[in-house]
Amino acid sequence: LDMRALHVDDVEGLREALTAFGMALVIALFSVMPPWLSKSVEFRNDTLWIFFWLAALVLITRQRGPAPFLAGLAFGLCLLASIKAVPLLLAHALALVTLRWWSREHALRFALGAAVPIAIVVAWMYAAGALDAMVYDTLLFNAAAPVSAARRIGGAAAFAVVAAITVFASRRITNRSLQTHLTFFAIWYVALLLAFWPILTSRDFLPLVPVAALVIAAALPRQHWQTALAAALAAATLGGIIEARIWRTPDDAREDFVDAAVRLTAPDEYVFDLKGDAVFRRRPVALVY
Length: 289
Hints:
By secondary structure, this protein is an all-alpha fold.
């Protein structure tokens, strides 16, 4: 298409369509990336956490109309799905502040959107008399995880150095694009995790996968987009299949364990298990839960 021959509104519409198409391909790519292919079919909240974060990421790029409010709404639901949304939100906020990309009005709409689902859940928990348990199990329990003093001090020092370098670099950047924002988000997110997050797992770094895909796709020449994404999707699918080893015979050990627990205990008895495997029986202490 000759972009110069189109009306400006048509050009903007075409760009939005290309962006939506690119996001759809990125989400398809992410869904088969190892280790997400195998993790996404497990009974865990990470799937919901990533879904709402990707929705917020799409809405953040629009920056007009109700998009900031809806992005905040998605982030609020993301936070309710997993406490791991906290470093995501902080990294996005630091990237936006560093690049001065969003207006105060957008930030206010975002905050209002995020407050809606959180306020509803907090009010419901308070009415049920479970607010103290919610705060402890979602915030204080993870915050109390043992972290060595050396890591705390070293992490804080390293974060200060990264922050100074990032702020200095942002002052020399004139292009306030989505690609720039995602790059700074990735820097802040990794710095926050390594410096302050008490328990690190490989799943905590999964949000960097779609970010990397978006940044790489934005940097590719348009004529190479389809070829590069098709190759990446094929490689990711193959990698996911190999990582998940889907040709194996299913392991019935967990099902056998649940069957044995249900057979040997009564519904009102407590079962002390490792990590919630006996989901049909009561667990003995709040710390385990």
